[in-house]
Design brief:
Layout (H helix, E strand, L loop, with lengths): L1 H19 L15 H8 L4 H6 L4 E12 L3 E8 L2 E8 L5 H8 L6 E10 L5 E12 L15 H6 L1 H7 L1 H22 L4 E2 L5 E2 L11 E4 L4 E5 L4 H9 L4 E9 L11 E10 L3 H20 L3 E4 L2 E4 L5 E4 H8 L10 H10 L10 H12 L8 E7 L15 E9 L2 E8 L4 H15 L11 H9 L4 E7 H9 L19
Length: about 500
């Protein structure tokens, strides 16, 4: 720490010396003519003779990432948003102000250069710097051996530094941007309308997670950050928007892990006159097309596993998963006592009053999920675990729902929507009764949503996709914090 403090003071001294000599250290007058990528794309294949014949001079700006000073000459690497390029200075060819800047340069400074292109003896495309401007004096030194850091926490806290010095990190967030753009275009090309629904809601509906709570002073009312946009998107189905989607934040006041962040991004979409079966087909097409777009293949490597997105994907019912991966027989699935005993054996905290279907799903998550490495649709969830989903016509004990698992993780959740307002009210009342006295906000009834259903919601299916987890797959990232620019962290220690 003492060494970093000393370097900071040295850089401040350089900045003051430049100020005293009339050199601006934070100007905003330099204009860029080309990016590194544009220069390489247009002139990367030019010979030295072709470059010498170019009358054009190029203006390039970026962060100084390397500086080899040889007295009268120096080589540097300049990094902009598109990549790095080498620059070459000859002091005797530059004006006095530029020479003064060179003497006070540090790695991390942001500079602007102008000059012609040439190739070095090793053939590297380089800009011959004729004019140099200091655009920003960096007072803190960049880490010299960033790739050797084992403390991931520093990278998450100081993402701005991570992005400067780690090309891999920049690539992850470029892929994230491409992913959301692809999802948006995929749905709009199929007639879906992108919408925005409230982040602050009087009743946190759509999921049973614990919400964040706040207070609006003017209205003198409690509000919750949304746990899901579901109830509002369904209101839009009632209003006649038959295909809608939203890509935005959800908030859940729960734990932190490699797969959970309190603030996360969801894609949620609804389609009228469709079933959860239709959304299975749509999801297969969406994900396999995304894989083709991002990696050029329907097969990708993730954490040592080979994931094949080629349709059709495996389909597994909750019952089949329990029998296949759990120590259970067919007759055990209706035996409350045996199921509760088995759940306790697995370490589950049970009072004995939980609905049987909910316990069966919790057991499935423990015994079956870890085995679902390849894309797998899990279907036929018990009705007790799905208060917003439509009952199956053949078996009213289960609902028309699927969850998509990849690498043992839930990536998507979808179902044919319940649009019977009487059935919906009964189920929400039952859910509220069970949750009474539990987590704050989860036992409230959204009467306005029920009123909307009473006007008539068309038969429909809806799906939510965890964008962060999806990006984890396509960037081979082991933690959700690797794909969130500024993940939630504990307060930094003094």
């Amino acid at each position: 720490m003492e060494e970093l403090k000393e370097l900071f003071l040295q850089r401040r001294k350089k900045a003051e010396e430049l100020r005293k000599k009339g050199v601006p250290i934070y100007p905003n007058s330099f204009r860029v003519s080309h990016s590194v990528e544009e220069i390489r794309a247009s002139y990367g294949n030019h010979s030295e003779e072709d470059l010498q014949a170019l009358p054009e001079r190029f203006s390039l700006a970026g962060r100084l990432m390397r500086l080899n000073n040889f007295g009268k000459a120096a080589f540097c690497h300049i990094q902009d948003r598109t990549g790095r390029m080498q620059g070459y200075f000859r002091r005797d060819k530059m004006e006095e102000t530029s020479q003064e800047v060179i003497r006070n340069l540090d790695i991390g400074d942001i500079i602007g250069v102008r000059g012609k292109l040439f190739r070095t003896r090793t053939g590297e495309l380089t800009i011959m710097v004729e004019e140099l401007e200091l655009l920003v004096k960096s007072l803190r030194p960049l880490p010299e051996k960033w790739h050797g850091l084992v403390d991931q926490e520093t990278r998450y806290r100081q993402r701005y530094v991570d992005l400067i010095v780690t090309p891999r990190t920049r690539e992850v967030f470029i892929i994230r941007s491409r992913t959301t753009a692809f999802l948006r275009n995929f749905l709009t090309d199929r007639g879906f309308l992108e919408v925005e629904t409230p982040m602050m809601q009087p009743i946190p509906g759509g999921a049973t997670a614990r919400p964040f709570k706040t207070h609006h002073h003017t209205l003198d009312m409690e509000l919750y950050l949304r746990v899901a946009p579901e109830m509002y998107l369904k209101r839009l189905l009632v209003g006649g928007f038959e295909r809608v989607f939203e890509i935005n934040r959800n908030f859940r006041n729960e734990g932190l892990s490699t797969q959970h962040n309190p603030e996360f991004t969801m894609l949620e979409f609804y389609q009228a006159y469709a079933t959860h079966g239709d959304l299975m087909d749509l999801t297969e097409t969406m994900f396999s097309s995304l894989a083709q777009e991002l990696v050029g293949d329907k097969i990708l490597e993730y954490q040592g596993a080979r994931l094949d997105f080629t349709p059709p994907w495996k389909r597994l019912t909750i019952r089949e998963g329990l029998l296949m991966y759990g120590e259970l027989r067919e007759e055990d699935l209706q035996d409350h006592q045996k199921i509760f005993q088995y759940g306790k054996k697995l370490g589950m905290e049970l009072t004995g009053h939980e609905p049987l279907g909910k316990v069966l799903v919790d057991i499935f998550e423990k015994v079956a999920e870890p085995h679902l490495i390849q894309p797998t649709f899990v279907t036929e969830y018990p009705i007790e675990d799905s208060p917003l989903a439509r009952r199956n016509d053949r078996n009213p004990e289960v609902v028309d729902r699927f969850e998509l698992y990849i690498f043992g993780r839930e990536i998507a959740n979808a179902f044919s929507e319940l649009n019977d307002p009487i059935d919906q009210r009964e189920r929400l009342n039952e859910q509220a009764r069970i949750k009474a006295g539990g987590d704050e906000g989860v036992g409230l009834i959204d009467d306005d949503f029920l009123r909307a259903l009473e006007y008539g919601m068309p038969p429909a299916a809806g799906e939510g996709i965890g964008v962060d987890r999806l990006v984890m797959l396509f960037t081979n990232s082991p933690s959700i914090r690797d794909v969130i620019l500024f993940p939630q962290m504990r307060p930094e220690k003094e």
